[in-house]
Amino acid sequence: MSTGLLLFLAAGAAFAADTVNDPNQAWIQDLNRRTADYVKLHHMARAEVHGLKATSSPEAILSYQRRLAHRIREMRERVGQGNIFTPEIAVQFRRVIAAAMGSPSGSGIRATLRDEPSSKHGALRVDHPYLYDFTPETTPPSLLLNLPKLPPELQYRVVGRNLALLDIDANIVVDWIPNAIS
Fold first, then answer.
1. Would you give per-residue pLDDT tens digits along the chain (182 residues)?
2. Nearest to 52 by CA among 38, 31, 69
3. What values do phi and psi take at 168, rounded to 5?
């Protein structure tokens, strides 16, 4: 690979990281507002669903997740895909992910994604459980570095070619971007 091409790819990855970390970008401001609104709703639901006490009981944890997810669904009635990842925000995510995949670390990201356990998901559905087999899927750290930061209640997950936004306490899909990974 030529030096010029390597510099171009590295500049693309640096550009993606810079635009993702620039709070003045309109799409970042919109995403931050939308995720903050969701987190407020999450906290209200959590206050209404009596908290989970320290336990090692899988049944108690699952019961709490289900109650929290149910309350969130009630509070978010008629919310569908695209409520946080609007079409405009989704375009920016695809651009940033494409730049990361085209960077020198792109082959490592692809290898990590190939090695991930397969999920039980057929189709992702907003406000429905995030299903996985034995180990929850993760998002490669080198890809996460290129994505906007999230509040601690939320995490990104790559499911096939899709990027999902997961509420980790309720274990539900908050939103998702179809075909985010090229």
1. 433 333 334 444 444 455 555 666 899 999 999 999 999 999 999 999 977 777 778 888 889 999 999 999 999 988 889 999 999 999 999 999 999 888 887 777 777 777 655 555 557 888 888 876 544 556 777 788 889 999 999 999 888 888 999 999 999 999 999 999 87
2. 69
3. -75, -30
Query: Kind and range of the H or E element at 83?
Result: none
Alpha-helix runs per DSSP H in the chain: 3-20, 26-48, 58-75, 87-101, 106-115, 141-144
Tokens of 99: 């730049």
Closest CA to 46 of 156, 179, 167, 173: 167
Separation between Cα atoms, residue 22 and residue 45, nearest integer Å: 31
